[in-house]
Sequence to fold (253 residues):
Amino acid sequence: MSEAVHAMFSDIAARYDRANAILSLGIHHLWRKATVKASGARPGMRVLDCATGTGDLAIEFAKAVGGAVGGAVGVPVGGAVGDPVGGAVGVQALVLGTDFNADMLQYAPQKSAAKGLNIQFEVADAMNLPYEDDRFDIASISFGIRNVDDPMTALKSMARVVKSGGKVVVLEFGQPTGVFGKLYRWYSKNIIPVIGTMITGHREAYDYLPRTAAKFPAGEKFVGLMLQSGVFSDVQARPLTGGIAWLYVGTVA
Fold:
């Protein structure tokens, strides 16, 4: 992530959640639920959520794998946090949310605690994750892959820390087509910047977000990028809400 983009997210961090809820009409919550379901997350699994921002997807994963306060999420029985998957009998569920931007991340612990969830949050770069190989069952990233400097490097980094047969899940914007696509592009160009500026006071951010979403390879193009990485044995993709968003699930080779 460039320093300019990093600074942009820092500037809008305090009002980021409110802007998301209004601009997406709340649909982004449904997309995250679909992401968790598609990942195959089950109680006891270990999940890494990259570019977690204020923690929304990490919170959804914690609900699925078991993240209630008091359950010592992320603390293996008889071991220390960071033991490899399968390295200790009785290892409990772990949800770890990471983000390159500490200003965004600072809001995540309070949000998860308010929901009675125990989730770890750390500053980390998706392109150079500081975790051992095969530590997680699932690695995810939502609306963040287009913001990294090299999406291919990020995909490889995420796959490295996931055990063979595990999943790398990507939720990202797409480019809907037809009449619906025209309406969405009009909304993105004319409404999102205005409302985003009203809420956050940062016009540049809400010019940047629709612009990068419109240019980022979606659908089969992104599937091709995932397969080109050479770290997945299978990649599945499906559009959400007419193609406004796409959900990709790669099985780690």
